Amino acid sequence: MAQADIVSQNDSPQVAMAIPGLYRRTLATGERMMVCEIFLERETTVPLHSHMHEQCGYVLSGKITFTIGERDYTLLQGDSYSIPGDMPHTATAHDDTVLVEVFSPPREEFRIAR
Is 52 left (phi over 0), alpha (psi -120 to 50) or beta? Predict the structure, then answer.
């Protein structure tokens, strides 16, 4: 039987990612999904990339433009999005921006060592 995964803020510090101005906190991780908090400093751009993981998210604060496939979407606080697996996408933060993102399946490179 699977176990619950409870993560306190102290158990998951914010970590800098390879892109300057981009930070991640890995929150709860299940067998088939993972929740992360993503912080982008103003004017940070995540380069075009794709991954096998389905990605859904919610803009907790800030303003961000995603290019998903061939379309641009500018999102504000309260907006949400879904990006299919293997779909090329990029993002640029217009303000300091906080996202809550869910990945399925979990991204192994984002797991917290415990």
Answer: alpha
- Does the global pTM surpass 0.90? yes
CA distance 2 to 57: 25
Nearest to 69 by CA among 55, 49, 54: 49
pLDDT digits 0-9 by tens, 59-114 = 999 999 999 999 999 999 999 999 999 999 999 999 999 999 999 999 988 887 65
Strand, coil or helix: 28: strand
Q: Are 47 and 91 in contact (CB under 8 A)?
A: no
- Find all residues with CB under 8 Å of 21, minimum gap 6, and list them: 40, 41, 42, 43, 44, 93
